[in-house]
Design goal:
CATH class of the largest domain: Alpha Beta
Structural class: alpha/beta
Shape: globular
Distance between the termini: 12 Å
Helix content: 25-40%
Strand content: 15-25%
CATH architecture of the largest domain: 3-Layer(aba) Sandwich
Radius of gyration: 19 Å
Largest sheet: 5 strands, mixed
CATH superfamily of the largest domain: Thiolase/Chalcone synthase
Strand order of the largest sheet: 1-7-6-4-5
Number of domains: 2
CATH topology of the largest domain: Peroxisomal Thiolase, Chain A, domain 1
Length: 337
Amino acid sequence: MLCGVGGHVPPSVVTNADLAARVDTTDEWIRTRTGITRRHVVDPGTATSDLAERAGAAALESAGAATVDAVVLATTTPDHPCPGTAPKVAERLGMSGTPAYDVNAVCSGFVYGMATATGLIAAGLADRVLLIGADAFTTLLDPEDRDTVAVFGDGAGAVVLRSGDPGEPGAVHAFDLGSDGSLADLIMVPAGGSRYPTRGTVPGAVPRAEPGAEPGAGDVWFSMQGRAVYRHAVRRMTSSSRAALLRAGWTTGDVDLLVGHQANIRILRAVADELGIPHDRACVDLDQVGNTAAASIPLALAHAASSGALREGDRVLLTAFGGGATWGSCVLTWPKT
């Protein structure tokens, strides 16, 4: 059962005009290709845990809960490669000793986290779970790469899940999850892991030629094959949505609000069209925050709830596609928040 929601974005804003002043792009080019007009970015010294803590606190307040039995953090930008960031977030929220761990499924992370959190509850390991999606994704970007700096922003969103009756508003009804490791190079930061450790990297070095080679300077930055990502994202989000709806016994006509991963307005509209869901029933907030990766869906939920676009009992479809490649969908009814 979903019983609370909250979000947080850092205060610093970068507009399309700001980007046009430092890289080869224009406001029109960004808006027509992505639908984004501005994004929030972390200041130096602000980390994913800082964003996650604030969103988590907002979700706990929304749920009227001081503590939970577990904390799950969906992120691709942990504070450190080791250890995970969730225990630190739990400790800062006053829950030292509470089980806490990270989930990394990139932009599908929140949906995967929903499945993980509901599984903890179904298994009797927790009565309440705080699920946070948080990413400081701009820390992975080459500041000179117009194709990525135009798309991504930073932020965090969170929900509180509790045990309950399937007939109650807030009930989580069904999931569909999937992955395809052959598509790993579509969305990737090549260096920094065990395959290409960054130790010994020389700025300006020639990029790696084969496995085991030293990473080049560019390999430490995020890369994305935009056209291929678009094609796979639309196909997988559409098929996954249909599978989750079928498991819940719903049709696309039953969906009051489609909340897709906020990657690109064209992807969101294409998925809605494929599913036969009118655009006015597809949530869009990427124009103000950009693609916030694992924070994308919970931030969109928080925005829809605060704006009145979500009402108690509304049937909601969540769907996402991310690096890995991963994808997933979830259907739920909206609670009184």
